[in-house]
Structures are given as C-alpha cells and as structure tokens.
Amino acid sequence: xxxxxxxxxxxxxxxxxxxxxxxxxxxxxxxxxxxxxxxxxxxxxxxxxxxxxxxxxxxxxxxxxxxxxxxxxxxxxxxxxxxxxxxxxxxxxxxxxxxxxxxxxxxxxxxxxxxxxxxxxxxxxxxxxxxxxxxxxxxxxxxxxxxxxxxxxxxxxxxxxxxxxxxxxxxxxxxxxxxxxxxxxxxxxxxxxxxxxxxxxxxxxxxxxxxxxxxxxxxxxxxxxxxxxxxxxxxxxxxxxxxxxxxxxxxxxxxxxxxxxxxxxxxxxxxxxxxxxxxxxxxxxxxxxxxxxxxxxxxxxxxxxxxxxxxxxxxxxxxxxxxxxxxxxxxxxxxxxxxxxxxxxxxxxxxxxxxxxxxxxxxxxxxxxxxxxxxxxxxxxxxxxxxxxxxxxxxxxxxxxxxxxxxxxxxxxxxxxxxxxxxxxxxxxxxxxxxxxxxxxxxxxxxxxxxxxxxxxxxxxxxxxxxxxxxxxxxxxxxxxxxxxxxxxxxxxxxxxxxxxxxxxxxxxxxxxxxxxxxxxxxxxxxxxxxxxxxxxxxxxxxxxxxxxxxxxxxxxxxxxxxxxxxxxxxxxxxxxxxxxxxxxxxxxxxxxxxxxxxxxxxxxxxxxxxxxxxxxxxxxxxxxxxxxxxxxxxxxxxxxxxxxxxxxxxxxxxxxxxxxxxxxx
Length: 666
Prior knowledge:
By secondary structure, the chain is α+β, with helices and mostly antiparallel strands. It has 12 helices and 37 strands. The termini are far apart.
C-alpha cells in the first residue's frame, strides 16, 4: 500500500502501535484537545466524527468512494486492521511564509481487507486540525472509475461561515457570510466559526490526478463532497493502486490561528526538485494594469502595451527601484484571435517587441523577464507547445512564466475536473524541467503542492485587483475576508499596490480610454495606506507593484516597496476578525514588515511589538492614513525609533490600513 510514511525524513520521530480488529477507534492530537473517532455501523458503513475539548464539532459523517459498478473499494470487508503512529519533525522550505515548519501529528490507519484487496482510510490529527484520505490496492482490476465520493461534513454545532458558491469553473466569486445551515454549496476553503467559539476551515491537501472537491448540501441536509465531473459524468479514472487528496479541517481558538496553521503544507510530500537554488522570491512590475484600464491593449496596435520601448522603460524602473522582475502581457502573437479560435503562438513575438534585444538588456541590468502564456482554454494546443516554449524561454534566461486560462476549456472539460488538475500539474512539472517558476491565473486551487513542487510559486484563484478596473470592484470587507478564506490554501497573486486610487491620472488622457462607459464609476475602494499594507497582508513570494510605473515615480510612499523583501523567513497573523480587520507581521533577514487593514469601519488597534527581536532597537517607517481625511490618497509617513517592549497604535480610516517597515539600528 502506497503510504507517505515511507518517504518521511529519517530525522523524524515515529512511534507505531498495531491494534486489533475493533471496528471503532479514537485518535487524539498531540496536545489531546482534538479527537477523531472512527466507527462502522451494523451494516459495516464507515463514519468519522470530530471533537474539540470533548465537545462534538463534526457529528458522525459518512466515508467512502463509489465506483462505476456501484461498489465501494474495500467494501467487501472480512478483516479490519488498525494501527496508530506518532510523528514529529521540523523541515525547511526554500521559500514560504515560514522557512522552518514543524510537522507534528498522530496517525491512525484503518485497513479494510477483503480477500486480496485492501482499502485504507488514513487519519491524521494535528494540534491545528485533522485530515483523512482514502487509499486502495485492489486485486483483479486494472483501474477504478470513480462516480462519487460519500465524504460528509455533518456539523454538530450551529455557527457562521464564509465561502464562495460551489463552482467547477471559477473562484472569482464574492464571499458570502451565511449561517452554516443555510449554505447550499461552497467551494473550499470553507471557513466557519461555531457558536461555541471554535474556528475552522474545510479544504483539501495534495490534490493530484483527481477532481477538486466542492461542498454541496444533500437531500438529508448534510454538506457532502461534490467532485467536479468530466463531460461523460465520470468523476475520475484512477489506477487500482491509488491515494486520494486529503480532506482537511483546520481548527483554532481564534480566527488568526487558521492563518498561522501549516497543516495543509505538512500534508504534502517533501520537494521532488533536488536543486532549488534557482527558485527565488521576487518583487516585480509589469505591463498589465493599463490593459485592464483600457489605456493599453494586449493586441499589437497604436495602444500596444508590450513594446520594446515600454519594455526598456520598465526594466530601467525595476533596476532603479530594487525590483527583480518585469512581466510582459500581450508580447506574443495570437491576441488578435481572442473570442475566436483562441490560438496563440507561444514563441513568436509581435513585431514591435524585440524579445532578443530586450532579453539581453534585462540580463545586463540583472532584471528577470517574465513571459506570459494565455491559453484561452485551448489546452491541447498549449500542452503541445509546452516543451518547446519553455526551452526557448530558458535559453533567453527567463525563469518565471505567468499562465492564464480565461474562458472555457476546449472539449467541454471543467477547469476543476480531473482533466484540469492533471493539466495544471503537467505544466508545473514541465516548468521544473526548464527551471521555470510559475504564477498561475485562473488556476486549480492551491492545496499545498508548493512543498513538493516549490516552483509552483503563486496563483490567482479569487477576485484579484483587475476587478477594480471594470466592475463594482473589491471592497475593504472583501480584503478583510480574503486572508481567512482563500489565503488559507496558499499564496495569492492579487497584484496589489495601486496608487492612482480614482484613476484620475489615467482619465486625464481621454483620447486613450472611454470613461463614459460601464467602467466610468470604477476606482480602488481602499486608501493608499491599505494598498501598501496589502503587500504584507496578501502573501505571495512573487509580489507585484501593479500600478503603471509613472504613478510610482516621485511618490514618497513607494519607498515601502523598495525596502520590502518578498523572501520572508517568518510570518504571524497577530490579530484579526473575519471580514473586519487583520494585522500580519513578517520577517525577512533582520527586517520586519507589518501590514494592517480594516473594513469600511474606521478602527484603532493596539499592537504590542514583542514579535521584534529582543534587545534590538528599530527604525520604524510608518505609512498610515491621515486621521479623518476623506481623500484616500492622503498618506502620512512617520519615522520613529521603537523597541520590542513598545506598543504601536494602529489608527485606520474607514477602508484604510497601515504598513510599517522595521529596520534594526544596531
């Protein structure tokens, strides 16, 4: 039976115990507060339940997978074998919110044997949640056709939840705050707070070769796993020796405990990339925002953004401002086909984009080029081009590619089906072969595979900045919900940092954009201080200053991004309430950064600075709202000397924020 136990690091502590043939058993977290109980009813149907401090969180909930012939792998049970293990180690990652991660859990394996076939339900209990998955090794068959998953999440306590609706195609949907009992369907992460004070989030980890899991309330009123199907209705075609993704429930006493959890990462295997020295976090700018505003176009023409002239200008800006990369969207031929056959040439640049000379110039300036690959959903064409395109980019010294999947997949496949999951993984592995990092838009959701494939740097997977350019946009309440829901799954390329809050500088050139149309009302719905704080709050190892570079030139507040370091060593969410406010601190080397944001309510918070290194004084550069100002672009910048024994007053206007850089004086 395939088990991750065999792949664990030798330095770990592992203690195992074999049990008898009992059909129920209890697994406790290392601190004893969380328990998972496995049982089978009198018909042999398996269930699990979860308690926190001996109070039921998840009532008995069904387990199982249904195959095409109606059978459940391992259902013909003649023998039940149980064992428990304890595991504890600390591992290091090449990048991440925290470079050092402790992986401490107790495990219970429930093996259901029938003849030569075996099915295992493997449980893990951490101090910050529980997880389980299905494993099987079947005799007399070559494969399994999965038609359904029976996994349930039967909440024992009433409470509130935060999620987006369940969708097989997109995550770019608005959050809903609903009583748990009123949720008909949801994507994950599905974050909740029970009335008795338990915070949690349902998600999945290590998603490979299997459709994503959404949640849907069944006819009995229970939230159940709902797998994205393929056009023929099948959920997955898998081999007879297989393990599913982990089904996860993160658990905490406070909302910020969910942000600080590493459980999703810990449920993934160690890196399969032996040499990760080429995988490096970056700060970047790009030819991108102008296209969403309408001041530039992806397609070649009079307003084309990705030209040689603009490329040189952006590379110079990156060089002058301590930024490592420049993104180019609309550089390659094919955008003229948009809305038609969705055909792109991933190697041929438009005539006004001299890619060879641009690559040479960037290398001279020690600035990384980012190439953009929009697929328009034409997956067969993109997969055919992958090797040749990535080989070409590598020859140019390109180590980062941003991919896009706007529009439906050809052939009627859902983005989040097994077909989609396998495609995204193929791109990750091909990229690794050519030492290319990935920033994926319209992605499959993050499930921690960045531990195993650390070139999978960041993803979109929610309503990002561009929604502010041509829709009602993302309000401050949304931005205070994002860290407690979407970001629990992993990094997000939100593309923060717009300084031209009302687009007045873009509107000034009325010959280039129509401002009387549906986007005439659009603007950024936060203060500029919050835009800066988002560089800290919304974690991504590839962090963008998303505005047009002319809006940063000469702006004193842009110093924060010049000083900022995307390659952090330590992170902690310090305080926050879902949808209301959040405060997060990160350390990179000896420097610390703090970001705070509030919803539409003005707020003052007191934040002790005990997270700073003891015995060291710091120069704090504070970028804050001007108290009481109704102009969102008003920002105050203050220099102050602080120590770890001090407390910072964080004063935020409605939809405002605060960002702080702490640089040691000694």
